[in-house]
Amino acid sequence: MAFTIGNDALAVAIRAAADPEDVPDAVADTLAYLVPAAKAIILKQAPDAPDAVHDAALIRLAGWLYDAEPAGRGAARPLQSSGAAPLLAPWRVHRAGVIGEADE
Fold first, then answer.
1. DSSP-derived secondary structure for 53-103
2. Which helix (H) or strand (E) holds 65?
3. CA distances from 82 to 20, 30, 44 (A)
4. Which of 3-12, 43-52, 67-76, 93-102 is predicted with the least confidence, judged by mean pLDDT?
5. Is the model's pLDDT at 27 over the cut of 80?
6. Contact at 8 Å (CB) between 65 and 14?
7. Half-sphere exposure of 75 (CA within 13 A, CB side)
8. How many whole angstroms separate alpha carbon 104 and alpha carbon 98?
9. Separation of alpha carbons 64 and 72, rounded Å
10. Which contacts (CB < 8 Å, 24+ apart) does range 11-20 have?
11. Closest by Cα among 66, 67, 87, 65 to 76
12. Average pLDDT for residues 20-34, to the nearest whole number?
C-alpha cells in the first residue's frame, strides 16, 4: 500500500495553505520534514491499510504534528493525539511474539 496524497494537497487539507498551487515556502519546508516522519509512524502501525486510510491518517497526523507543541501534552503518543490511531486500528500490526525458542 502507498500514500497517494502529495504535500501540496496535504497543505490544503491541514489548512496551512488555501491553494495547492500556492503553498508558502515555510509550509512546504515544514512539511518536507514532517511528512516522511508521519508516513514512517503510520506504516509501522498499519502497513497493510488501504491507500485511502493511509491518506486520511496522514492528514490527521501531519496536521497534528504541524500544529503541536513539541513538548506539549500528547507528544509521546502522536497517533492517538491526532486521531489517526482509530483509523488504523483494523490493520494494526501486533508485535508481540515468543521470547526465546519454543519447545517442540
1. HHHHHHHHHHHHHHHS-TTSTTTT-HHHHHTHHHHHGGGPPP----SSPPP
2. helix 51-67
3. 23, 18, 16
4. 93-102
5. yes
6. no
7. 8
8. 13
9. 12
10. 13/59, 13/63, 14/59, 14/62, 14/63, 14/66, 14/67, 15/63, 16/66
11. 65
12. 94
Which grid cell sits at 61?
Answer: 497526523
> How much is the pLDDT for 43?
94
Binning pLDDT at 50, 70 and 90, where does residue 72 land?
Answer: confident
Retrieve residue 52's grid coordinates: 485511502
First to last CA, the chain: 36
Q: Tell me the pTM.
A: 0.85
